[in-house]
Design brief:
mainly beta, Pectate Lyase C-like, 42-stranded mixed sheet, 42 strands, 46% strand, elongated
């Protein structure tokens, strides 16, 4: 039999609103998350087995575990449907099997008071790992509320009960077949572990569900070999911020850490968005809203595609508000909102921070296509905001960050900061921040930065710090209006060492000669228009008074 142990074991084995006006055109109507109030119809062709007929009381105080397990065992024989009528069913652990349905009508499954460090999962497949070369029949859970009863669990916020999950799915990694499961119209509240937890080799669909005050996360995945599709999922939490956590640590079939996740119309009102895909895994997201920080994305060897989504990003922390090792990560038509989230100023908020330094990796790619970078409306004046930051990197690794199209608004202080070497390409982006680009090369690493198809308005500046002979600034089709022709440098001698390929076009009203006009070698200075235009060429870079010679 594919399921081990059947039937020989005993029984059977804040900021909830976005900044005004943001994303109205790209973010759809809020998700439908609450279970349906009307009794769901019986599943077609399935025998309905009521837990009440097996002795369950649903009175909120009697332990109904044994009665519910008997109903599950009976349903397993006929691939039937376990039905929970109105009431609250106190359950320790019930072991589920593939092929059955569990359906509720105004029914709550509640965890009993704790008996110390109790890691029992409420509904689980852990003792009956699916073990087959083919996928299982679907295991369906619908229209139930799962109550983790956190007020009667004792200490849990230091992870004392982190594995006490409400729904737990897993299959054996030794066989190719996956456990197939579907969770629909369910609600998870007051959990001390996870709402839905999947381990490895699971094909799971989640639709129209909500998680509220679930300590570790509304949905958590830790293993490879999984296929997950989540639609219309909402989290919130006043006591425990409830989010989504995908962190692949356990191998699936064939030793693979690859899992594939698809998310649509996900709303995280008070929880983190923590995605860590690896080694051939994929994440595909569309219409995701994260209304409070933090966010973290990691994809060494993996692929991430996120579209039409909004992320509130807070101050950097060692394990939050960062992008780490993006094997191939692309955000498209997304909005990033700088949000201190109550951190007392002065603080710095970097909306997209790329980290590659702890364990150096090569051939990483991060693309930000047609994205918007802005701030919350009530941002304190002493909060510094960066749109994109690239931590120190070596050009030899072949990593690249691309910013294509989109807008950086004028409440942002720095557009892109290359803090210590690395390759960055900025193309066709409307950058209104005080500093367009800040670039430095450290310890001889050098930077390679491309600026292309940009028009920079008043109040913007380039800042070049610590450039060396390896550093290269490539410029193509960049137009600067003279009030915005500002160049700053922590060490002015760095400009002399900087290699410039191409040059900016600076539009002015009078000759740059005889006055202090900054420039980069290769820049062209234009006065007038049409046949009356006069041209000068910059022959020596300087942040204050470059050398210009007449070119017409």
């Amino acid at each position: 039999m594919p399921v081990r142990g059947l039937p020989g074991r005993r029984g059977l084995p804040r900021r909830t609103l976005l900044a005004a006006g943001l994303g109205a055109a790209v973010i759809g109507v809020g998700c439908t998350a609450a279970p349906r109030p009307e009794p769901p119809p019986p599943s077609p062709g399935r025998q309905r087995i009521a837990v009440a007929d097996h002795g369950a009381t649903g009175d909120g105080s009697t332990d109904d575990t044994a009665a519910v397990q008997r109903a599950v065992d009976a349903a397993a024989v006929v691939d039937g449907e376990v039905f929970f009528g109105p009431g609250t069913y106190v359950v320790t652990t019930v072991h589920l099997v593939p092929g059955i349905w569990l359906t509720g009508d105004r029914a709550t499954i509640r965890r009993p008071p704790t008996r110390g460090k109790d890691w029992l999962r409420t509904f689980t497949t852990e003792d009956l790992d699916w073990d087959s070369e083919t996928d299982s029949a679907p295991l369906v859970v619908r229209n139930l509320t799962f109550d983790g009863n956190r007020l009667e669990q004792g200490p849990y916020q230091s992870y004392e009960l982190e594995h006490a999950h409400l729904l737990h799915f897993t299959a054996t990694p030794g066989s190719k077949g996956r456990l197939v499961a579907r969770v629909s119209d369910c609600r998870f509240v007051d959990g001390v572990g996870d709402g839905i937890n999947i381990r490895c080799n699971v094909a799971l669909t989640v639709e129209r569900c909500e998680a509220v005050d679930v300590f570790r996360g509304g949905f958590v995945m830790v293993g490879g070999g999984c296929e997950v599709d989540i639609t219309d999922f909402t989290t919130r939490g006043a006591t425990d911020r409830t989010g989504i956590d995908i962190e692949i640590m356990i191998a699936g079939y064939g030793g693979s850490f690859a899992s594939h996740v698809r998310m649509r119309r996900v709303r995280l009102h008070d929880g983190d968005f923590d995605i860590a895909i690896r080694d051939g895994g994929t994440f595909d997201g569309d219409d995701i809203m994260v209304s409070r920080p933090p966010i973290t994305v990691s994809a060494p060897g993996g692929t991430v595609r996120i579209r039409r989504s909004i992320f509130h990003v807070g101050p950097w922390a060692p394990n939050a508000n960062r992008i780490v090792y993006p094997g191939d990560v692309e955000f498209r038509e997304c909005t990033f909102v700088a949000d201190p989230d109550g951190e007392p100023p002065p603080v710095t908020v970097t909306m997209v921070r790329l980290m590659t330094t702890s364990w150096p990796r090569s051939r990483l790619s991060l693309s930000l296509v047609d994205c918007t970078f802005t701030t919350v409306p009530d941002l304190p004046a002493d909060v510094t905001v960066r749109a994109v930051q690239v931590d120190p990197d070596s050009l030899a690794r072949g990593n690249v960050v691309r910013v294509v199209g989109g807008t950086v608004d004028d409440r942002v202080d720095e557009g892109v900061w290359v803090s210590g070497g690395g390759r960055v390409e900025i193309t066709g982006t409307m950058i209104n921040s005080t500093t367009v680009l800040r670039a430095a090369g450290l310890r001889g690493s050098g930077f390679d930065v491309t600026l292309a198809e940009l028009e920079l308005g008043p109040g913007t500046a380039l800042r070049i710090d610590l450039a060396d002979a390896r550093s290269l600034l490539r410029i193509s089709d960049v137009v600067v209006h003279e009030p915005g022709n500002a160049i700053r440098s922590e060490r002015p001698e760095s400009l002399a060492r900087l290699r410039v390929q191409g040059g900016r076009t600076v539009l002015g009203r009078q000759s740059p000669q005889g006055r202090s006009v900054p420039g980069l070698a290769g820049d062209e200075f234009l006065v007038g228009s049409g046949s009356a235009v006069r041209r000068w060429l910059c022959t020596r870079s300087d942040a204050v008074a470059a050398d210009w010679r007449r070119a017409d």
